[in-house]
Design brief:
It is a single chain. With 224 residues, the chain is an alpha/beta fold. The chain is 33% helix and 21% strand. It has helices at residues 9-15, 30-33, 42-46, 62-70, 83-96, 111-114, 144-153, 167-179, 203-210; strands at 20-22, 52-56, 75-79, 101-105, 120-126, 154-164, 183-188, 216-221. Strand 3, helix 5 and strand 4 (101-105) form a beta-alpha-beta unit. It is globular, with a radius of gyration of 17 Å.
Length: 224
């Protein structure tokens, strides 16, 4: 079902302009657009040189807001391509006065446009769309074309943490991480049965657990 556009969406996003960069993709060729850097000035944005963690597909912001509050010495970049969803996260951060979160309103394909090489310490992939049809495989956020982007922006030894309720997507991702030469630090096939300290529950995760679905988790490290 199509989501109705939020009222005054553009105006509300502009009101949050100090905590978000909205991608200007005049060039619809994302590969070409990503080649023109507009790097985020982390030190200027956050006022410090703390480690930078990235969440790709932050949705309404529950995970990144709670994780940022638990980790005040880490800076968080939260990426979400759907403005209609992102606005809730933006307004929550403004209302709650959280200072260590900044947002990117862009698709994962152009992350390299905004994030310099070897600038990110960790990436969270929380309940990305598994896109089960074979024809959509290249759009999965753990397809090799995306993993190559992550390897570029992550520091040597940087980490990727993925959670999903979709078993085939979990297996696809695990195989992809290993094929890219990443070190698998841990896997979990039922997060409710084996909870991990400090792991914040997302909106989707809570709903899936209530439905009795198992939550799978992969923790991998990039070795360059």
């Amino acid at each position: 079902m199509r989501m109705h556009k939020k009222s005054r969406l553009e105006e509300r996003i502009q009101a949050c302009g100090d905590i978000v960069t909205v991608a200007d993709l005049t060039d619809k060729n994302m590969l070409r657009a990503a080649l023109t850097p507009e790097y985020l000035p982390f030190t200027q944005i956050f006022g410090n040189s703390n480690p930078v963690y990235l969440e790709i597909g932050c949705g309404k912001g529950k995970f990144v807001c709670e994780t940022a509050r638990l980790n005040p010495d880490i800076n968080f970049i939260a990426c979400e391509k759907i403005s209609n969803v992102l606005i809730e996260a933006l307004e929550r951060v403004k209302e709650e006065g959280i200072k260590n979160i900044y947002f990117l309103n862009c698709a994962a394909e152009v992350l390299q446009k905004y994030l310099p090489a070897s600038s990110v310490d960790a990436i969270f992939l929380n309940f990305s769309n598994p896109l089960p049809k074979e024809g959509y495989k290249k759009q999965r956020l753990t397809h090799p074309r995306f993993l190559s982007i992550y390897k570029q922006i992550l520091k040597n030894g940087g980490e990727i943490i993925q959670k999903t309720d979709d078993r085939p997507f979990y297996e696809f991702s695990l195989q992809g991480f290993m094929a890219e030469g990443m070190q698998i630090l841990s896997t979990c096939e039922d997060l409710a049965a084996s909870p991990i300290d400090g792991d914040v529950e997302t909106e989707h995760e809570r709903r899936f657990k209530q439905m009795g679905r198992k939550i799978h988790r992969i923790h991998a490290r990039v070795i360059k």
